[in-house]
Amino acid sequence: MNEKELFEIAAKARLSAYAPYSGFLVGAALLAADGRVFTGCNVENASYSLACCAERTAIFKAVSEGEKEFTAIAIAGGKENADTVCYPCGACRQVMTEFCGSDFKIILADRTLTLSELMPYAFSL
Ligand code: THU
């Protein structure tokens, strides 16, 4: 699975987003160490603060199915298409920190970063 392929899976997952309030559709594709891919999309709610981001949907799906080792996540977000860079929000960076190492790859539309680049000095217990 190369980075472009993982991003394409995220772009497809974006089409499942439930985002009637923001109109901002996000898809994520999380690559596990064993090669499995878990997808996620953002799921909004009329009670706005209950929205769940695509990245956390994917991570929680994976963990709930027994997977906790991850190597990369691709994120495809945007109102019209997935061409522009959509950085993960702070809450999702913190959830990534819980399960992923500093070299965990975050694949965006035109760049790839590591978790330590996006979340330096992260809080952990
Ligand atoms: N969103 C994500 O799915 N991931 C992020 O990292 C940033 C924001 C969603 C939440 C909400 O449904 C919409 O994008 C607009 O904030």
Ligand inventory reads: tetrahydrodeoxyuridine
**CATH topology term:** Cytidine Deaminase, domain 2
Q: How many distinct beta strands? A: 5
Radius of gyration: 13 Å
CATH superfamily: Cytidine Deaminase, domain 2
What amount of the residues lies in strands?
A: 15-25%
- Please identify the top-level CATH class: Alpha Beta
Terminal CA distance reads: 33 Å
Give the H and E element order.
Answer: HEEHEHEEH
Q: How much is the average pLDDT?
A: 98
Q: Provide a count of the helices.
A: 4
Q: Largest beta sheet, briefly? A: 5 strands, mixed
Given as residue ranges, the uncertain stretches (5+ residues, pLDDT < 50) are none
CATH architecture: 3-Layer(aba) Sandwich
Q: State the domain count.
A: 1
Strand order, largest beta sheet: 2-1-3-4-5
What form results from the Cα inertia axes? globular
Percent helix: 25-40%
Would you tell me the structural class of the helices and strands?
Answer: alpha+beta
Describe the model.
The chain has about 120 residues and is of the alpha+beta class. The protein has a single domain, classed as Cytidine Deaminase, domain 2 (3-Layer(aba) Sandwich). The chain contains 4 helices and 5 strands. Strands 2-1-3-4-5 form a 5-stranded mixed sheet. The longest helix has 12 residues. The protein is globular and about 35 Å long. The termini are far apart. The relative contact order is 0.18.
